[in-house]
TrEMBL record:
A Pfam family it matches: Aldo_ket_red
Domain NADP-dependent oxidoreductase: from-to ranges: 37-226
Protein name as annotated: NADP-dependent oxidoreductase domain-containing protein
Organism whose genome encodes this protein: Schizophyllum commune (strain H4-8 / FGSC 9210) (Split gill fungus)
Signal peptide: none
UniProt-listed InterPro entries: AKR_Detox_Biosynth, NAD(P)_OxRdtase_dom_sf, NADP_OxRdtase_dom
Record's keyword terms, sorted: NADP
Length: 270
């Protein structure tokens, strides 16, 4: 990290200046969360995480990205503990978090939500996931409490929700911005057409539009990036890459090794 130069850039068309790189916090929180019985824990608890986050801060990184589902909320709590422990002025740090997934509690707190999809439709969680107005409002209140803050700098929808009308989702996000609980909104991990549709709905109604899109940067599978580039470029939306290398290759992916990707220039304008 010490060799990585840190700079500050405007996020999309907004005036918000974020650091490059941004520090991700998915691997900080509850070590039992999604732990593999054979491989062991991959998430670091607060004791190990805080010095790492402090090193990033001292290096110049001012932007930290997490999500409500990471460690079922513990990642957000660790970030809040980091801010409190090192007396970091709230106005100097940029907090980005996400909504959509189910934050499991009680006996389920060590489980990853995608491993128990039936819980999402149970009485306890039925309105605690997705992008309905109810789910978004419930999610933001939970994140504000765990982060111990009165506002979130960048609030991102973690996935698309085909079961909820796009108008409902975008109006809810707009209302959060108007309320001051959220300052900017972004999106993550969805198809290009889904992202474009949501932004178009916001523009048509005069609501708050996305300033960022966090998509996957995959060394072999480039299709989504190829399709997304013109959309984010033309609309001056910042792309935040959520991975830089691929894991174990599938048979389908291996074939791309024999067919080198030919990059094409993409032009955008502010």
């Amino acid at each position: 990290m010490s060799a990585t130069p840190v700079k500050y850039v405007q996020l999309g068309k907004s005036g918000l200046r974020v650091s490059v790189p941004i520090a991700g916090a998915m691997s900080y929180g509850n070590p039992k969360w999604g732990a593999d019985p054979e491989a062991g824990a991959w998430v670091k608890g607060a004791e190990e995480a805080l010095p790492i986050l402090k090193t990033a801060w001292d290096r110049g990184i001012n932007t930290f990205d997490t999500a409500n589902v990471y460690s079922n909320g513990e990642s957000e709590r660790v970030l809040a503990q980091f801010i409190e422990t090192y007396n970091i002025p709230r106005e100097e740090i940029i907090i980005a978090t996400k909504c959509h997934g189910t934050v499991l509690k009680g006996e389920h707190k060590d489980a990853v939500p995608w491993a128990a999809p039936q819980l999402a439709r149970s009485k306890q969680y039925v309105n605690q996931n997705g992008l309905s107005r109810a789910a978004i409002f419930n999610a933001v209140e939970g994140s504000l409490e765990r982060l111990n803050t009165s506002y979130i700098d960048l609030y991102q929808i973690h996935r698309a929700d085909p079961s909820t009308p796009p108008e409902e989702t975008m109006k809810a996000l707009h209302d959060l911005v108007q309320s001051g609980k959220v300052r900017y909104i972004g999106a993550s991990s969805m198809r290009t057409w889904q992202f474009a549709l949501l932004n178009e709905v916001a523009e048509k109604n005069g609501w708050t539009k996305f300033v960022s899109m966090q998509d996957e940067y995959h060394l072999l599978y480039r299709e989504e990036r190829r399709v997304t580039s013109p959309i984010v470029g033309i609309n001056s939306i910042d792309r935040v890459d959520d991975s830089i290398v691929t894991g174990e290759l599938t048979d389908e992916e291996v074939k791309y090794l024999e067919e080198p990707y030919q990059p094409k220039a993409v032009r955008g304008h502010a």
